Structures are given as structure tokens and as C-alpha cells.
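Limitations

Structures in this collection are predictions, not experimental determinations, and the ligand pose is part of the prediction. Treat each record accordingly. The example that follows, with pyridoxal-5'-phosphate as the small molecule, is included so readers can see exactly what is and is not provided: the inputs are given verbatim, and the output is the predicted complex.
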Amino acid sequence: MSLSHGPQTLAIPGPSIIPDRVLRAMHRPSPNIYVGPLVDLTHSLIPDLKTVAQTDHNATIYIGNGHAAWEASLANTHAKGDLVLVPRTGTFADGWAEVARCMGIRTEMLDFGNRDAMDPAAIGQRLREDTGHEIKSVLCVHVDTSSSIKADLKAIRAEIDAAGHPALLHADCMASLGCDEMRMDDWGVDVAFAGCQKGLMTPAGMAFVFYNDRAAKARERSDLATFYWDWTPRTDPEIYFRYFQGTGPTHHLYGLRESLDMIVHEEGIENVWTRHATLAAALHAAFDRWEDHGTNGAGLELNVRDPAIRSNAVTSVRLPEHGTDLRMWCEDHMGLTLGIGLGMAPNGDRMTNGFFRVGHMGHVSGHSMLGTLASIDAGLKALNVPHGTGALEAASAVIAGKDR
Ligand SMILES: *Cc1c(COP(=O)(O)O)cnc(C)c1O
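Predicted complex:
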């Protein structure tokens, strides 16, 4: 018998759950795109996007996804043949570097593996060696969605400065924006970007690129920004269609207005971060109990061992032999869709089916988190996976504020 009828929960790390009010805001006829409410609404999005990224600098909107943001941000800050340094803590760094290489940018990877933090000192050391300042940018994925490792952007900035190196700091905030704390200006990030379909709770289709004056300066020497990708005309344009270099993503804009109302004007960005942190703490507490140390370390465990570098938006789990089974069981029996493991094991490796991910970004509540955890608990039991007890009690204790 399946218990998957009734409400469905999407707990993958993007796209995330779209709130009903966002969907309703989009359900309307096409608006006039030359004058009237849509124009005013679009202007109103810019300051709120800046609030979400905590920047007073520039915000642009592209019709596109995260890959578009990768391309947009690189195109505006680099010339063909430039070298960039890519600290790596998961497969999204590989994807970003590949985009750079396809644009004629040379990449140097600094691989920290799939389980440990980026080491800011190692980044600083590499920059000190680069006495000719050949490295133009450091490309840091803030939260790598495959491994669920969070980078310390502030510490990395401090190392770049301590090395006396002029490299720009780019942050891929696709998974983190609107979930994990992100303070672009305070942390000295020069270019940051995200899409709309993760923390910002709208259907995939828009990408946001934020940049400061140092990055604007780099635009002057870049030769990769073609008509569509150039951020200059898109920034505070006098003519409306320049925002998008063509027809705007009309309905997405209505959806985004609604989600930014929820995030910025109703809950408040700091409270949004705290909600995500609390729910993530409940989830991590549950996994700490479930973790099974009785099988030579080959049992259920969180991918990221150090709690300080765990994301509040996505969690990667190692479950040798059973990761795929558990995910399928939750989908078939509970109406809960968990994320697949991504790039954590080579094809054919015994760990290929040994991962799953929990997306907890955006429209998540205490109720949805406890439902997700209880569903996983049922799946572990149904599949006879060895696991510790007390997980749900530990999670609800965190939520009740009685963390032991
Ligand atoms: C989702 C994601 C991307 C890619 O976004 P798409 O919209 O799928 O192109 C890039 N980087 C990170 C960190 C992501 O989480």
C-alpha cells in the first residue's frame, strides 16, 4: 500500500517548493510591457534583491538559470586567456570551471575534496606565489549543492587581502541565497549570483548577478561580454526593455515580487536565515542519532562531518548500498521527493547508489521538516537499514528550543 497520495513534498535542492501565493500572483493575462504596473513592479524588485544579497551595489536580472549566471558574471569580468583560481569542494566548482574554459578562460583548480572545507590559507598561499598577478579572480561556490559544504567567504576575502592580491572574489550563491547567511558587501565579495528557483521560491527562469565597483572596473578590460550578457545596459536602465535586453520574463516578475514580499517585507531576511538555521539544526540532530557507527564506518552518515561548514539549505547524506533505495521508497510510499546524490562517487563505484540529498531551501517550515525526517525514519525501518534511535526526538527538541 502506498501512502503517497495527498500533499506532495519536494525536498530536492532546487527547484524548491513554490508557495501557492507565488503561483497565484503569476496566474494572470500578459501585461503591457511598455508602461504601467509591470514597469513599476520591476523597478521595485531591485532594492529588495540587494537586501537579500546584502549589497548596496548593483543588481541585474537575466532570463536564464544558474548556468546563465555563471556565463554572465565571467563574461563581464574577464578577457579571453585570463587565469582564474577555482577552489573546489564539490561538483558545482567543476561545472563553473567548465563554463569558464568554454569561454576561453584558463582555470586552475584547488581541490579540497568532497567532505572538507576550502582552506582559506591555501588560497592565500597560492595568491602569494602569483607575484605577477596573473590570477584575475577566485571563483568560490558558497554552498556546493553536491557535497553541501559551505565556504567561509569572509575568511577567503581576508586571505586575498592579506596576500596583497588584486583578484576579484566571485561567489556562486545559487544554493545559499535566501537560505544561508550571505553578506556580500561586509564579506568583500565582488561578484555574487543566484537563480530564482532555490531560496527565492519562484519557477526556474531568472538569474540575478550582483556586482560592486571593483567588478565594474574589471568590465572595462573584459572582452567577453556580448550584447546579451553585458551587464552595463541592464544596470539601472533608463529604457525599460534594457533590464532584459528584450521582452522581460513577465510572469516570473510577478512571482518574484510575491516571494520578495514574503522574504524581505514580511519575515525579514535575517529571520529567514534563522529559520533555515533552526530547521537545518533539527535535521542535523536527527542524522547525528541515526548515524550508525557499528559497521566499520560504512553506515549512514552526513557527508559533512564538521557542523561549522554544513549548509542550512541542502544536506548530503551517505548511505552505502541504500541511498537510492531510500529515496525511491520515500517517493513511492510517502509522497516525499528527496534529491539524488550528485557527483560524489565515480560511475560504477559501489557508492554510486550510496547517497541522497535533502533540500531544505525556501518554503520550508517546522512542520515540513519534521514530516521529511519522520518519512526518512519510516524508510530506514521499511528497508531494514541499520540506524540509531532517538532521531525524531532530537529534532523536535531542537525545534522546541530544548536542545540537549
Ligand atoms: C543549482 C546550482 C547551479 C546551477 O543552476 P541551474 O539553474 O541548474 O543552471 C549552480 N551552482 C550551484 C551552487 C547550484 O546549487
